[in-house]
Design a protein that fits this description.
single chain; mainly beta; 7-stranded mixed beta sheet; 4-stranded antiparallel beta sheet; globular
C-alpha cells in the first residue's frame, strides 16, 4: 500500500536551516506530483511546495526564495530544504500525493523555530 514517511524535523533557531525527507513506497513514485504541506496550531493546512514528475516546482510567496523542493526518483524520496527559517514556519510538515484522485498523507514531522 501507499506509504509516505517524513523525517528531519526538529528544533532550530531563527535563521537556521533544516532538510526534511519523505520516503515513499507502494506506487510509481517518479510518475506523480509530490507536495509538502504544513499546519501550525490553530491555522489551516498550507501548501508550501510542489514538484512535478518532470521536476517543475511551485512555491507560495510565503516561502519562495527560502524553501527548495527536490526529488530523487532512484530513492523514491522527496526533500524540502528550508533556509532562513522564521518562527512563523513552526508547524507540522507533511508530504502528500494523489493517486487517481485519492490523497495520501504521511504522519508529518514537527519543525519548531525558536530561540
Amino acid at each position: 500500500q501507499v506509504q509516505l514517511v517524513e523525517s528531519g524535523g526538529g528544533l532550530v533557531q531563527p535563521g537556521g536551516s533544516l532538510r526534511l525527507s519523505c520516503a515513499a513506497s507502494g506506487f510509481m513514485f517518479g510518475a506523480y506530483v509530490m507536495n509538502w504541506y504544513r499546519q501550525a496550531p490553530t491555522k489551516q493546512r498550507e501548501l508550501v511546495a510542489s514538484i512535478t514528475s518532470s521536476s517543475s516546482t511551485y512555491y507560495p510567496d510565503s516561502v519562495k526564495g527560502r524553501f527548495t523542493i527536490s526529488r530523487d526518483n532512484a530513492k523514491n524520496t522527496v526533500y524540502l530544504q528550508m533556509n532562513n527559517l522564521k518562527p512563523e514556519d513552526t508547524a507540522v510538515y507533511s508530504c502528500n500525493t494523489a493517486l487517481r484522485g485519492i490523497p495520501y498523507w504521511g504522519k508529518g514531522t514537527l519543525v519548531t523555530v525558536s530561540s
